[in-house]
Amino acid sequence: MSSAIVVFSGGQDSTTCLIQALTQxxxxxxxxxxxxxxxxxxxxxxxxxxxxxxATSHKIMDVSLLNELAISSLTRDSxxxxxxxxxxxxxxxxxxxxxxxxxxxxxxxxxxxxxxxIITGVCETDFSGYPxxxxxxxxxINQSLVLGMDRQLKIETPLMWLNKAQTWQLADxxxxxDFVRNHTLTCYNGIIGSGCKECPACELRQNGxxxxxxxxxx
Length: 218
What we know:
The protein has helices spanning 12-24, 41-53, 65-69, 98-113, 135-149, 164-173, 177-183, 200-217; strands at residues 3-7, 27-34, 57-62, 117-119, 154-156. The protein is of the alpha/beta class.
């Protein structure tokens, strides 16, 4: 029987990935990382969404060490989320090493469960400027995991080349647009659903939704 691990935050992208994975694999296990993120309610949302959608299992992993090492507006309440780029050209919401750590730990978990795939919602088309969301990075760490554990494993990125409007369309194709719209947490300020409407994540999400709904009604 086929099985996969979904790196799961309870946000729009990972929830859409979970919805699709549940139609493709016999067993779908979620793993959520608690790294002391800005909106701690993300963990509770992830638990609720994974359960409601019918994930086979859901593991919450404490990786608070990341919070100690990585300084970002998502790990420090004292740093406001900003639209301005830092001197290095990256958003201040970038958490250095986050996806390196997450995918490595997900790979170990997949090894233990015998899962053949890891699914992550990273995206290069509409990404927020994070270098660890690029296709080149994912392919590189995938190769490292295969070499390092001497076991075939595929990291799947179903949203890699989709913009946010297309991601909404994908959720809608499974009849889950309203579920994703109302129950997921994407907002950097921790507001479920439509969010604060001001942070970069909310703007990207809302613009994509409006674009998809407009094209759908045209």
